[in-house]
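User:
Can I borrow your eye for a moment on a structure tokenisation matter? Would you put together a sequence-and-structure record for a protein of your own picking? Please set it down just below, with no commentary around it:
AI:
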Amino acid sequence: MKTIVVIIVVSTALFFYRPASFAEQNKIIAKYSGEESINTVPFTTSGPWVILYTAEGPIEIVVRKTDGTFHRTAIQNVEAESQGSSVQKKAGTYILDVDAYRPWHIQVREMK
């Protein structure tokens, strides 16, 4: 009888189990939206992080340290409506330089 109860409990747990999605696993550090070019307010990461974006037109995203020094170009020469991501490996405090003139949305998320 105990075996049947254990099987039922395990089967029920497996039925209701679902792996956490990317969004559930990775905390949002910052969110930005706009229809023009901007420099974001600084945000701080504690480890690897990812930029997720959607854009209704051309977009370029450059990552800079807060002292203004160049870190890297994350998204470059995207000429049409698009969505994508760019993984950044180093923790720190950064600013994004967003160059765009059509509606866009960006999320910065920590990666586990």
User: Anything to note?
Assistant: The chain has one domain: 25-110. The two ends are 41 Å apart (CA to CA). The chain is about 15% helix and 50% strand. Confidence is low (pLDDT under 50) at residues 5-19.
